[in-house]
Amino acid sequence: MNIVLVGAQWGDEGKGKIIDILSRKVDYIVRYQGGNNAGHTVVDGKKEYIFHLLPSGILHKGKICCIGNGVVVDPAVLLKEISAIENSGINVDGRLKISSLAHVIMPYHRILDQLRETKRSNKIGTTGRGIGPCYADKINRCGIRMIDLINPKVLAEKLRDNINEKNEIFQKVYSHQGFSFELVYKEYLNYGKLFSKYIFNCVLLLNNATDKNKDILFEGAQGTFLDIDFGTYPFVTSSSATSGGACIGTGVSPVKIDKVLGVAKAYTTRVGEGPFPTEFSEDFSETMRSRGNEFGATTGRPRRCGWFDAVMTKEAVMLNGITELAIMKMDVLDGLSSICVCTGYKYKGKLFKEFPHDLEVLKNVVPVYRKMRGWDKTVNKPLSYANLHRNAKDYLSYLQDTLAAKITMVSVGSSRQDTIFVK
Ligand code: GDP
Ligand code: IMO
Ligand code: MG
Hints:
It is a single chain. This protein is α/β, with parallel strands linked by helices. It has three domains: 161 residues, 3-Layer(aba) Sandwich (Adenylosuccinate Synthetase, Chain A, domain 1), CATH 3.40.440; 93 residues, Orthogonal Bundle (Adenylosuccinate Synthetase, subunit A, domain 2); 158 residues, Adenylosuccinate Synthetase, Chain A, domain 3 (Alpha-Beta Complex). The protein is built from twelve helices and 20 strands. A hairpin with a 7-residue loop joins strand 19 and strand 20. It starts with a strand and ends with a strand. The model has no long low-confidence stretch (mean pLDDT 97). Bound molecules: guanosine-5'-diphosphate, 6-O-phosphoryl inosine monophosphate and magnesium ion. The site of guanosine-5'-diphosphate has 22 residues, from helix 1 and strand 3.
């Protein structure tokens, strides 16, 4: 079975935990978009791993882990990640495959990302990792791909053109000295040598795998509302984080996808700027942030927190074709006397039941809430659906009915064991 896993909110839903759990059952795990703006947490016993570029199934020996063509790769970050995981005794040789078509993040992408943010009055709050500028070069047809790193002549030609053009922009627009061709060329040629054993035709690899009925798990990064087309533009990332991105970002056709699994928190969080209709007041946000440890896994920035937004998540179910949902972090809601779910938005006397495209509307809506009873402790041991607190069951069944997607997993803690599988 080929499953696409997507975040149904603004990222950080807990995708890493679910990918890790599902990895046991599949043969291949493939990241299809984003880059090291992602931070996917996997807790293995007492050890916590945060993956930025490596697929979150990498801890499972024998599984093939691919970085698809839709991903943008910062070689320095990936090298560090590989060496950290190998130091923990997990070998990636022979099972880490990087698509030859994946685009490469260059030093000028990182710096441009940061400079643009400081200049803009309408800041996005990017991770500053060079993601946007790298995707922009890809679309602009001047990007450098993994395959180019192992061809000194092609790399030199492409890099020279880029540096010539970019240095003028850096100097004239940003008063930045620009980049030395020789230094960047030397650094990236060296990455080519180090990565050559990992660079593959992943399109062929994955299609051959599906022909042999192998199972593939497509690991989405970011979340539906950070998607370049369907998210809260311009406060989004620069890739297709929705399920459609899985096909574009790997070369596996849509007819080969069997299921889309959405991951959502039992409440909502967001890092960076942009509208957030159900955002808590400053005080309550702080309380929930510390209960849920809501700090970015990549940048450490505090995450903004709010109630579960069913209008948004329903849109995510539609956009991605989600039929099953994993609801995460139910334990963080423990101890609240009541819990709210947003069922609609009010704006200038009008009730919106669908997610509005006009950001001006989204920025100014007043959420309509359904108030539900809270609980002291989500679940008693041994963990099972039957042992969930009655009010937690009511909450989940309300979400399931409203979203019209089956809740098949409920998470009540960061480790693998803290998971309820709903039959
Ligand atoms: P991702 O980007 O979607 O993979 O999510 P992140 O790793 O950025 O953030 C999710 C955070 O929540 C991580 O610190 C996880 O260890 C943690 N987490 C996942 N599931 C649960 C849960 O059910 N309860 C609690 N308390 N923490 C969880
Ligand atoms: P995971 O995979 C949460 C956000 C940034 C910023 C916007 C654009 O861990 O869920 P970018 O650097 O991509 O140009 O930043 O997108 N963002 C994320 N927020 N989780 C992520 O990934 C994110 N990746 C990017 O905070 O608001
Ligand atoms: Mg994350």
